[in-house]
Structure prediction request, 309 residues.
Amino acid sequence: MRKILVTGGAGYLGSMLVSKLIHRGDEVTVIDSLRFGGSSLAHLAGFKNFKFVEGDVRDLDLMAGLIKDAEFIFPLAALVGAPLCEKSPKEAEEVNLLSIKNLLELVGDQKIVYPTTNSGYGMKEAEEVCTEESELTPVSLYGRTKVDAENLIQKAGNGVSLRLATVFGSSFRTRFDLLLNNFVLRSLRDKRIEIYEGHFKRNFIHISDVIDGLIFSMDNFDKMRGSAFNLGQDSANMSKMELAQKVKSFVPDLVLTENNDQKDPDQRNYIVSNEKIRKMGFTARVTIEEGIVEMIKVVKLRPNISENL
Ligand SMILES: NC(=O)c1ccc[n+]([C@@H]2O[C@H](COP(=O)([O-])OP(=O)(O)OC[C@H]3O[C@@H](n4cnc5c(N)ncnc54)[C@H](O)[C@@H]3O)[C@@H](O)[C@H]2O)c1
Prediction:
């Protein structure tokens, strides 16, 4: 049984991670400001090994007390995604970057497993494969704060960082702004998807593989410490249009059109290698097709859902 602190534990990834840790028998404390509410954690209320603190990671006194009791920390609290960060740039700097700097000043021998985004790889030449050695050139404020925070963690030497591909799949707080989830929602609700920058390639990963990857990094911390690892599914390096066509193969009356007036705020177009973490013994398993089937069921079960939830 381990003592674990999860910041942002009520979110899309956090609620799934915390559930899994609690069922493993770990002792977990979550701190979250409940920006999206707390119903994502309500199913854990009866577990004695689950503790919840409503609060802000920018509160240094509160964080100091929580950190000293922890063995492992997953700092997940963030303003996630380029649009949200552009809307609240000061808060994005404070939560995504400054709170990590403060965390590193407060920790003693606690170990940190940090999720960041692989959107920092930005625009690459066609067929160039990004490894952890590839240059990080984030475009958006979101990408920059995450890359800068990762650098601080690497420098401190007591962390592992995972550069996540675009996540898909359902959670206790399912996000519908993520590409695959969003395409499935729109395919069933609108029967039409207008795609911009359809040839831009991305890498994808199912949420259950992300959670297993985070826990794998905790369990293998001493071997992975001080390094960054791409975390994605190798078979899921594909363009937006290829992804949309896969969705169409499950929703035949879907109409796909292209419109290149809009731009991805993160300007990402890359193929990612996940070999480094695979060599450590971790492989992502859930396929894009399985994710589409899952999300079709989710949208049918939640017909009034919108991408802003
Ligand atoms: N979902 C993805 O595709 C993805 C990809 C790469 C990296 N990540 C990273 O994983 C982490 C979690 O992302 P997510 O998708 O679960 O996002 P999310 O928005 O669902 O969860 C973030 C959580 O942080 C909380 N939070 C925000 N500001 C806070 C503050 N000041 N104090 C305390 N809590 C605060 C929110 O209430 C929310 O519950 C983030 O660090 C994100 O950058 C996510």
Notes: The radius of gyration is 19 Å. The CA atoms of residues 97 and 149 lie 5 Å apart.
